Here is the input.
Amino acid sequence: MKKILLFILATITISCNSQEKIDFKVGYLPNLDYTLSQKQISENTIKYIASDEVLQSLKDRGVENPTVKKDTTILKSISKTGRIEGNAFPVNIELLESTNPTLLSGTKFFGKYIDQKIRIDSIFSTTMTNEEKMTLRMTMESMLNQVEYPNRKIKVGESFKQNNPISMPIGNIVIELDINSTYTLTNISDGIGYFNLDQIYTLKTEIENYEIKVNGKGNGQIQYDIEQQFFTKYFLEMEMNLKMDLDPFSIELQTKSITDQTTEIKKASKSNHNNQAFLLLKNSPNQPIRDYVNIMADMHKFHNQTWISFTKSNPLSA
Here is the structure.
């Protein structure tokens, strides 16, 4: 009887321990659709500190002091991953909805996921020039790959830290900042790891002839899908204050923002990408033919990979 009780207690202990830590990895997996919805509310306040003469000159030019700008941006996209080949698999990203004047709805990115990084090969857009596509391709790659998460086991109550540099252009100068982030696993429930996120913003470098002071912080919560190895919920409130002393005036900048982002993950859906490419060609006759040839090839390849993965994962298919 004692042996049975000891066995039951040992089993319960192992079960409990298995719920107290996760194998933390963040990245895309093959044969999945990721639908991202993001809303960001921001408020920027700029205050000029100067002599009455300088302030009057700004007023005469129509500059309010302080200047307050509020903005809400919406972004919705779907990222489709295909079948893995070697250590890589295709990733196609389409912007479904966007209030960003640069990232217009309907823009598509074609690339691959390799070594836990996204590499963008080409961009489809009915409005952008080839030069603009090249610039956007490099910007998107940098943005998508700027945060690298550690691959490690994390217990409830444990934290890990990250440091990420960012650049903030103001006029003809660029201010380099550091975002110091601390992720703390607070709970595990129903296949989801719950993290608290705390951030501190600091000035990274000094700029000659400019006295700059920066302080700021952010607080948020993250939900991590253990099976899919991806964040499905990301919420962050941040505030940053910057003061720059110039001659003959000073500038105080306060930035507040709330970012609310969700990602829905599903098995790759079967869709007729070739028909989509035909409609794009029909409706946009001014698009270079070479772009459509590349798109047709990418879509055909991705369609075949999606169909193969669908039939393999569905035992009822022929």
